[in-house]
Amino acid sequence: MKLFICLLLITITVVACNNGKVKKQENSTDTVAISKIANFPGTIIYIELPKGFAWDETALGFYRDEDGSVIRYDEFKTKQYAANMPVEERIGSLTNRQPITVSGYKGEIKTYQVGNTSVKIELSFGDDTFMEFIEATYFTSQEQTEKDILSSLKTIEVKKK
């Protein structure tokens, strides 16, 4: 009986220790490393960041040094929407758009090719009372970064107080 209790306590400890570490998220056949859950400062929006992203005050978003990619909350578009001002599309060529649900709110992910060197992804979601905008940019040649960012955007949660 003592051996059983000892094994049970060891198992619980191992599981508890592993819960806070890097989480793997399956996306078809690709595995994306998620490093941590973070909050866009001043918002009720939380995201599981891809590995290597950290808050950067200069970029006003979550930035990855190794490749210059950024994920940020688009406060300007959110304020425009709240003020009933038209929210214009970004410069670039729309290459993909797909519906998404974020914390029960309908939304859309749009992908734009910006020139020959970069890609911009815009996520918008909300209802009749609010709309939120998140954007990400990365260099065109970074296919894994694109997968990481798209997987991360699909983890966004709204935690209303």
Let me know the largest β-sheet. Answer: 7 strands, antiparallel
Percent of residues in helices: 10-25%
Rounded mean pLDDT is 80
Content of β-strand: over 45%
Strand order in space, largest sheet: 4-5-6-10-9-8-7
Q: Which of globular, elongated, flat, extended, rod-shaped describes the shape?
A: globular
Q: What Rg is obtained from the alpha carbons, in whole angstroms?
A: 19 Å
Give the H and E element order: HEEEEEEHEEEEHE
Give the termini distance in whole angstroms.
Answer: 46 Å
What class do helices, strands and sheet pairing give?
A: alpha+beta
Low-confidence stretches: 1-32
Q: How many individual helices? A: 3
Q: Give the number of DSSP strands.
A: 11
